[in-house]
Amino acid sequence: MSQRVAGIDRTHRAGELAQRTGLALPAMSRHMRQLRECGLVVESHPKFDARVRIYALDPKPMAELKRWLEETEALWSTQLAAFKGHVERVS
User: Fold this and answer.
1) Does the structure show a pLDDT above 60 at 7?
2) Tens digit of each residue's pLDDT (9 = 90 or more) over 25-77
3) When you count CB atoms within 10 A of the terminal residue's CB, does the N or C end of the chain come out lower?
4) 3-11 long-range CB contacts below 8 Å, 24 or more apart?
């Protein structure tokens, strides 16, 4: 049922997520609905039971987040290096 890529589960049933996090199933369902509405996860249903919801991260927003984090890290690295150079010159 779950795909595995490099040892990481790519899909999970809502019940599995609730169990792993210790949340009650209704609370997990609310969280997953919000994540789905925000476009961070996608929902599917297995052919054998349309009541079962299977969730996976949507890779597009994750790629955008990764790009933003890389840009932010580069900016802060540059800023902190400049600050360090200034402190070393002044001291």
Assistant:
1) no
2) 999 999 999 999 999 999 988 888 878 888 998 888 888 889 999 999 999 99
3) C
4) 10/56, 10/57, 11/44, 11/54, 11/55, 11/56
Phi, psi at 39, each rounded to 5°: 85, 15
